[in-house]
Amino acid sequence: MSKKINLESLSESISLKGKKTLISGAGSGIGRAISYRFAEAGSDLLLLDINEKGLISTEKCLDPFICKNQNYVLDLSKKEEIDKFWENLGQDIPDILINNVGIYPFKDYLEVDASFYAKTLEINLDSVFWMCQNFIRKRKKSGGIIVNTSSIEALVPFKEDLAHYSISKSGVIALTRSLARDYGRKGFRVNGILPGAIKTPGTDSLVKTAITKLQLNLIKTGYDFNRRLALGRWGKPDEVAKVVLFLSSDLASYVQGVMIPVDGGFLAS
Q1: Number of structural domains found in the chain
Q2: Which of 165, 183, 223, 254 is catalytic?
Q3: Is residue 230 part of a domain?
Q4: 243 occurs within a structural domain
Q5: pLDDT in tens, 49-96
Q6: 95 with 41: CB under 8 angstroms?
Q7: Is 0.90 surpassed by the pTM of this model?
Q8: Active site residue 36
Q9: What's the rounded Cα separation, in Å, for the pair 4 and 221?
Q10: Domain span at 146
């Protein structure tokens, strides 16, 4: 008689019932898709964005699911707002932290001034640093899960006029790996994703701008970019969200310190 294999079912492994997840940049695009999938998996949600209307729209998308949602309008470029947010949470601490907020403004390197550069790093890198720090402090006795969003541009700067952006997202990779090393034995799983060629309101706007203003350099970059996509198409926010859900669930219980590309094969080509 063969022995029965005692394994957790896949449905149990991917379930987030009884968990609470904080998602930044939840008001649109990838953040909204993450919110949807996490609600579907049973998690209660703390949704953060500077765009209140976007948060309300995201919340409406979650109507099919039975979960508790709380919206917070927050400027994550300001450390004092981040610290105040965590202080006001009290004991209502999330189990999972998804750092998804980000901006990618184009500007010629020689025209970047201190204010522009600082703003990019404050949102894309500094906010992740301070959010992780507060999360780990609050959960130092119980551990938790962190997933940070970087970009393929951190590894292969492909588009022009994004040096500031690439630097900020490279920092997210270094931070993610450092925290995975330092806090893995203390009960924290820390990983990240490298999205690329994802169709969001932000990327749609860039395409429209390039076409309507006849920005030939940007149009050529887009053409070359598309040719490099091994799958031959752009991705959907939901395709990123499902990878984030995997990293946040027990399906990834032995995954630590990785940065998973979700880029249609761009980095492999």
Answers
A1: 1
A2: 165
A3: no
A4: yes
A5: 999 999 999 999 999 999 999 999 999 999 999 999 999 998 889 999
A6: no
A7: yes
A8: no
A9: 55
A10: 11-197+236-262
